[in-house]
Specification:
The protein is of the alpha/beta class and about 450 residues long. The protein has 14 helices and 13 strands. The protein is globular, with a radius of gyration of 22 Å. It binds beta-D-glucopyranose (BGC). Beta-D-glucopyranose binds next to helix 5 and strand 10.
């Protein structure tokens, strides 16, 4: 299995070259697996001020935040609430989903006794085609979401309509952003070297700061020298080292043929990849005496959290892994089974970390091939923060690819950046409305 999931340095270099090529093609409006979506926002100055609400819709965990930006580079959260979307909300009709979001915002306002006009920044962690900072259409669902009637619609308008239906007149969506853009903006509010953002969680994606002169495809009016570009890098599919398990996983996914890189790297899929490898090994009689334990027998039953638990045990005996297997009902598990399972898991996560590092390396070297400057990449997401050794393996890969200069690419952990960033973006939108002669939230 180690060989099946191995990716050599040479292969990573070829992939990086292809990635930069896809970036250029996407910017030029040519067919590309990288969508290269302008976000109609540039880095903040750190002096933006005001009180904003942020709605962070990333996975099934939704957050509302109230953020008071003092304009001195701090990012204090005044209030925050979370709620969990049930599975039916993300797969039913879109109106059910947006209704639930609006009611959640209503409850947040009531519990905090907030009233008056509150501009809201909306982080929507899916591919968005934007023509301004204020709204954008959903291009396609990812990460297994399928809510109907949302693809092709402006999701900021859908939320505003749902807020109106709930008679929440004080809140209005003034800006819309992807979670990678939110993460970059939150970090950049504090760190002027930050020029890229990345999510490594349930899904994966990268955004970065680009000169607008490099964007040759038609874009809406923006009046900026630079813009953040949401690449939708999880959809990258050129020269990826895909193996038979990647092919199997894709076929049974909710979006076959799409998000090829995401399906090799992100938390939604790592467990399933390992499970498919276990099924094969067991079928060949090399694991569990050929009798597949229940936990490996159903699609997506073996989640990525279990992979991280397995990797927490790095003892030679793998006794910890045996205990987990016992708890998960995989009995009896021989020491050899535990060690082989851990090898499979390491192979799957090791490949993910290498691919993630290479795509980030390719991103920053598009405009700085010799890595002359320092690049700080704001990174958020459960895989990056919680998976044992993931960040270290990414850093090791960057050194392998760029030698000493690899350390010029700093992976800067940015927790909860997507929510905070939405507030920063709402503040930027308010500032530009002021300088454009309009009142923030004009027409409200
Ligand atoms: C989505 C991206 C998002 C990423 C991380 C992907 O599935 O397409 O828009 O940034 O997940 O949440």
């Amino acid at each position: 299995m180690r060989r099946t999931f191995a990716v050599s340095t040479a292969r990573l270099r070829i992939m990086m070259e292809a990635f930069r090529g896809e970036m250029r093609r996407g910017l030029n409006g040519k067919p590309s697996s990288l969508r290269m979506l302008p976000a109609y926002v540039d880095r903040p100055t750190g002096r933006e001020r005001g009180t904003f609400l942020a709605l962070d819709l990333g996975g099934t965990n939704v957050r509302v935040l109230q953020v008071d930006l003092p304009g001195d580079g701090r990012l204090p959260v005044c209030a925050e609430d979370r709620f969990v979307l049930s599975r039916d909300k993300v797969t039913a009709d879109g109106s059910v989903l947006f209704g639930a979001l609006a009611r959640f915002i209503g409850r947040f306002l009531r519990e905090r006794r907030l009233s008056g006009r509150l501009p809201l920044g909306f982080t929507f962690s899916f591919p968005l085609r934007q023509a301004s900072i204020a709204g954008g259409e959903l291009i396609a669902w990812t990460k297994g979401w399928t809510a109907e009637g949302v693809v092709g619609r402006d999701v900021a308008a859908l939320l505003n309509r749902a807020l109106a239906a709930e008679r929440i007149s004080g809140v209005r969506v003034v800006s819309l952003n992807n979670d990678t853009t939110g993460t970059l903006m939150a970090r950049a509010y504090l760190d002027p070297d930050c020029d890229a953002g990345c999510i490594l969680g349930t899904g994966t994606n990268i955004c970065y700061r680009e000169r607008t002169s490099e964007i040759r495809k038609p874009v809406g009016p923006h009046g900026r020298d630079h813009m953040i570009i949401n690449m939708e890098s999880g959809n990258f599919n050129a020269v990826l080292p895909r193996n038979r398990f990647d092919v199997l996983l894709d076929r049974s996914s909710a979006n076959p043929g799409l998000q090829a890189e995401e399906k090799m790297v992100s938390g939604k899929y790592l467990g399933e990849l390992a499970r498919l490898a276990v099924v094969e090994l067991c079928g060949r009689g090399r694991l569990f005496g050929g009798r597949l334990p229940e936990i490996f027998s159903r699609r997506e039953a073996f989640g990525s959290e279990r992979l991280s638990e397995i990797e927490k045990d790095d003892s030679a005996s793998a006794d910890g892994v045996r205990e987990f297997l016992w708890d998960w009902g995989a009995r009896p598990a021989a020491a050899g089974d535990a060690r082989l399972l851990r090898d499979v898991v390491r192979a799957v996560s090791g490949r993910a970390a290498r691919l993630a590092a290479a795509t980030l390396g390719a991103t920053v070297t598009k405009n700085d091939p010799a890595l002359e400057a320092k690049h700080s990449i704001a990174v958020d997401g459960s895989v990056f923060h919680k998976y044992p050794g993931f960040k270290a393996r990414m850093e090791e890969t960057l050194r392998e690819l760029f030698g000493g200069r690899g350390s010029r690419i700093a992976l800067a952990p940015m927790r909860d950046g997507s929510g905070l960033g939405a507030a920063v973006i709402a503040a930027v939108a308010a500032e530009s409305a002021k300088t454009g002669g309009k009142k923030p939230g004009a027409g409200w």
